[in-house]
Amino acid sequence: MKTETHMPSLSPRDPSVRARRRRLLVSAVLVVGAGLVTHISGTGPIADFAGDALYAVMIYLVIAIAFPRAAFWLVGATALALCTLIECFQLTGLPALWAQTVWPVRLVLGVGFDARDLIAYAVGAGVATLVDVMVSRRRRAHV
Q1: How far from 116 is each of 122, 128, 139, CA to CA, in Å?
Q2: How far apart are CA 119 and CA 121, in angstroms?
Q3: What angle (nearest 5°) sits at the alpha carbon of residue 124, between those of residues 142 and 84?
Q4: ∠ CA(94), CA(100), CA(105), 5° rounding?
Q5: Of 10 and 105, the one with more pLDDT
Q6: What is the radius of gyration, based on Cα positions, of the chain?
Q7: pLDDT of residue 12
Q8: Does the pLDDT value for residue 116 go beyond 60?
Q9: Is the distance from CB of 89 to CB of 22 less than 8 angstroms?
Q10: What pLDDT, on the 0 to 100 scale, is given for residue 140?
Q11: pLDDT of 2 strictly over 60
């Protein structure tokens, strides 16, 4: 008698992938909203840190939406690396120059390098990774 081995579907049409992407997308919208509120109404170093951490969370969520089956640690490490590259790109002066013409560039790329931002990015990417792991484990435990 022949037994079949079923592998989990890798299709983006897989219901679990679609559900994960929906949850991540809703989370991304909420994080962008919180980031904009922080940017508009917040002042001082705490608001700056929170905004930068939320930026890293948003980058994590975008990567996780694009690659929903990627390892959590890989998504977190990629988010941190991308945030770090963007922060270092500010040293070129190009984002500040571009932001003079296209204001939203200021929100996406920033305008001035600040090493403290790197700490906020690490915190944001780390927290996003941990929350994603915990939520995913809890969902699997209830299935």
Answers
A1: 10, 19, 35
A2: 5
A3: 135
A4: 65
A5: 105
A6: 18
A7: 54
A8: yes
A9: no
A10: 77
A11: no
